[in-house]
Amino acid sequence: MRHGRDGAATAVNAASQILVARGKYEPQERDNPEVTWGARASEGVWVPTKDGQHIHIRIDCPAADPAATVLRPSLRVFVGIETDTDIVAQTTGNGVRLLTVVHGPNAPTEFRFPVSLADGLSLEAMPSGGFDVVHTRFGATVGRFYSPWACDTMFRHVKAEYRLDGGAIVLRVPHEDAAYPVLVDPLYAR
What mean pLDDT comes out for the span 90-109? Predict the structure, then answer.
C-alpha cells in the first residue's frame, strides 16, 4: 500500500504522463480563490457557478477517508480513497478536475461523487454524457460536469460514463482489460 508523499507522487506521475500526451487543450491547473477544498476526501470541494452561487462536490470513500496531501494550493492528492485508487484533485481557472487514478484490477468500477446544489439549481443529463447545472427559474446553464473520458497507460480509450443516483454523480469505468494505471477525468467548470 502506498502512503503519504510516495503515494501522492505515484498518482501525480501517472496522471501527468497521460495529461501531457493528451495535449495543450487540457484545462490547466491554476489558483482560483473561488474554489475551497476540504481537508479530507469526504469533505470535497466547493466550486462556483456562473451566477455566483456554489455547489459542493464530495468524494465517496468507502475504503478510507484520507486527508489531502497538498502539493500546491491548486493541486492535492487523496491517496487510497478505495482499493488501488487515488484522486489527483486540481483547481482550474473555472472549476476543478477530480482525476481518478486506477492502479490495478482490484479497484472498483464505480465511483460516487455526491453533489449538493444551491437552492434553485438542478442537474440535467446532456446528450454528451455529462450533466449541466441549470438554474431552474431561468433555464440557464450555470455549470457543467463534462462527459468523462478515460484511458490506460498505453493511451487506449477506456469506456467511462456517468449516471445520476439520487444526489450523487456515479462514474462507471469498466477497466478489466486495461493496462494500468487507468486515468479517468471528471471535470467540472462553470
Answer: 95
